[in-house]
Amino acid sequence: MIIPEFESTLQSLNPFPVLGEFYNKADYVPLDLSVTNKDLVNVDVSNSDDLGCYVSNHIKVNNAKVAYGGYLEKRGIYNRSENFNQNNPETERNIHLGIDLWIEANTAIYTPLDGQLHSFNDNSGYGDYGPTLILEHQHNGIEFYTLYGHLSLKSLSKKQIGDTIIKGQQIAILGTVEENGDYPPHLHFQIIKDMQGYLGDYPGVSNQNDLEFYSTNCPDPNLLLRME
Question: Which of 108, 115, 148, 205 has its CA 20 to 30 A from that of 159?
């Protein structure tokens, strides 16, 4: 199989772990939040407390420290918010475009690659990203971006557009339920090829109609996370 140039370029890199070097692969466990997961039938995924308990228990029973997953996963978690739910199967945004790393609030977040601060914003709407950073990266003439959502408000302080970011540098900490869009604490990590003019924000969930475009513009974050 021929690997496209963009994916091949990212695979050739040696990224720093976004949660730092404190965790090994045995500390991570996959988490399925899709609409097909029968274990979620009795979980109110629209309630951050109920979902948080489910995630925490999943981590505990698997003797893990971090739960991860969600790329191109169709989820029911977004039904609660008008940001996503349009009551139409074709236009309802419920297909996740990033990978989530579920771990407690105030966990440090690091940049996997050298880059610069493209933009940042507090996307404070209910069910939104909350505080968000976007970094710009270039390698061998290829430009791309990484997005970090559900951060703490403190993570946006003393930031300036164009700040140089060094691989392995701590750039943020995870936010609490109260500041991260009302989700159990986690990092939303996403790779973006073309920002399309967005600043401090970019769609992290697609509808079925637009999925072909977004799945191409937002390739699998595991190209950098290397979870598997």
Answer: 205
